[in-house]
Amino acid sequence: MTAVPRERRPPTLDDPVDFAGVRLRNRLYRAPVLECAGNDDDAVDRLIADLEPAAAAGAGLIHQGATIVTGEGGCAAPGMTRVHDPDFVAGLARLTDAVHAHGSRIAIQLEHGGLRSMEVWHDAYGRANPDRHQLAVSRPPRVLRALDRLGFLDLSPRVMTTAEVESLVDDFARAAARAVDAGYDAIHIAGANMGIVQQFLSPFYNRREDRFGIDPAVGPDGTPGVGVAFLERLAEAIRDRAGDVPLLTKIPSERPTLPGIGPYLSDNDAVAACERLAGTEGPFDAVVPVRTSVFWDMSVVRGAFPASAWRDERFRDGFREAFGSLPRAAAVAAGNWIESFVYDREPGWNRDLCRRVRHRVDAPVLCEGGLRDRAQLDDALARDADLVGMARPFYAEPELPARLLGAGAEPEARAVCADCNNCAIAQAAGESGVCRTPAVLRAAGELRRQGAYDRNGAGDGRDAGTGDSL
Ligand SMILES: Cc1cc2nc3c(=O)[nH]c(=O)nc-3n(C[C@H](O)[C@H](O)[C@H](O)COP(=O)(O)O)c2cc1C
Ligand code: SF4
């Protein structure tokens, strides 16, 4: 990407923008959240039902939730969609057509769980797949091995040879090429949900000595560095197979969850990784810097303790299957409760990190995490990022953009999502990706009755005006 000057006046949510050559009608995006369509009889119908409303309501860019690039293994959660099958991916053209018909753009997110794969933590799935090995970047960190010995995890790692890493790269690249053929506008690599890409990036997981190891030159002096080589190789392979498609990735800044755990990626490491990957010579067209953990905990989805989901009788069997017994599910819930205090829930908790990255790279910076109202979104665009997004609020209000964008938008408009995380935890029990909080759904229903989602003055995007280029 060549460096281009930033806009002279701060953009607002309604301003169109060119995103690596792809025109977006505004700067609001749906962040990737799992639809859990993988077990549906017709996953494409389900994805259309989930994602088309956001397009019809005016979203500039829609990120589909993470999809798994291999035919077996690698699923981090129940019901994830796989994209190894050419016929299935070709069928996703119905989804991209539906989104395009409303003037939105759509990115697919590609992932592999690695050590976060389901058989490691999901009791029933692990029993049903006793011979499954997880692709591992290196021997698992000591704390994961301890959890394995204590029976909280069931690790059976296979540390990849260099040739096996290349084979995984090829799985990503082939999935990307198929997605481009099916009409996706951009490829998003899932880099910060504790899956295999983060495991390559993080010195907590990556102790490889081949060319996919940690690069000490990326990161501040005195720290191990960042393992950017896997992402660089992915970008190269995707471009070889899929052509010059816009590429973006989340980049993690990690927290250790428990004191004394490490090494982990700091904010400084994350900024350095963004510079390397999306700087003038970098292969990525955009980055999404986000704060995560080295563990698969609630750091990415900060919010309240999801008490009512844990207590919901309808999910009880699912929790028992996932965690092996109800007492063990209660132990996980207790950890969940502690996390709700550990993680700072300041609205827009990634904004300062995005701002630092934005000062260092010319490529678009996407910001998400606890952004909830129009004023916050505009302020983040003025100071911290080039596009702004929301995830959980789209579960509660699939047509949310209609309230935030265009001539009809209320200046005080705010998503109704209560950050209670009932949606997130229910997915461990195999439930689909929808809002699970009756009061919030009632609030959205009331807005619907009042016609709040019909006031879409955001245009159809086919003539998006004179926005700036990034
Ligand atoms: C249930 C759930 C599923 C998610 N799935 C993904 C995913 O597939 N890929 C990803 O990169 N992030 C995923 N996220 C993280 C979101 O993209 C987003 O970063 C996070 O929820 C914070 O944004 P929010 O406060 O607007 O929800 C998920 C979040 C939730 C709650
Ligand atoms: S359950 Fe509903 S209100 Fe709660 S975080 Fe999820 S989407 Fe938001």
Description:
With 470 residues, the chain is of the alpha/beta class. The chain has one domain (17-469): Aldolase class I (TIM Barrel). The protein has helices at 43-56, 86-91, 93-101, 118-121, 123-128, 142-149, 162-181, 196-201, 229-242, 267-278, 307-311, 316-323, 326-342, 351-360, 374-383, 392-396, 401-404, 422-426, 438-449; strands at residues 17-19, 22-24, 28-30, 61-68, 81-82, 105-111, 134-136, 157-159, 186-189, 247-255, 286-293, 366-367, 387-390, 468-469. Strand 10 (247-255), helix 10 and strand 11 form a beta-alpha-beta unit. The chain binds flavin mononucleotide and iron/sulfur cluster. Flavin mononucleotide is lined by residues 31-34, 65-66, 109, 190, 193, 250, 290, 300-301, 368-370, 390-393, 423-424, 427, 433. This is 2,4-dienoyl-CoA reductase-like NADH-dependent reductase (Old Yellow Enzyme family).
Write out key terms for the chains shown.
disordered C terminus; 14 strands; 19 helices; disordered N terminus; globular; single chain; TIM Barrel; nine-stranded parallel β-sheet; 470 residues; three-stranded mixed β-sheet; binds iron/sulfur cluster; alpha/beta; binds flavin mononucleotide
Supply the CATH class.
Alpha Beta
What integer is the average pLDDT? 92
- Mind telling me the CATH superfamily name? Aldolase class I
The Rg value, from CA coordinates, equals 21 Å
DSSP strand tally: 14
Which structural class do the helices and strands define? Answer: alpha/beta
Q: Give the fraction of residues assigned to helices.
A: 25-40%
Bound molecules: flavin mononucleotide, iron/sulfur cluster
Q: What composes the largest sheet?
A: 9 strands, parallel
CATH topology (level 3) name: TIM Barrel
Q: What are the segments in which pLDDT stays under 50 over at least 5 consecutive residues?
A: 1-5, 457-470
End-to-end gap:
10 Å
Count, helices:
19
- Structurally, the number of domains stands at 1
Instruction: Label the overall shape.
Output: globular
Q: What fraction of the residues are assigned to beta strands by DSSP?
A: 5-15%
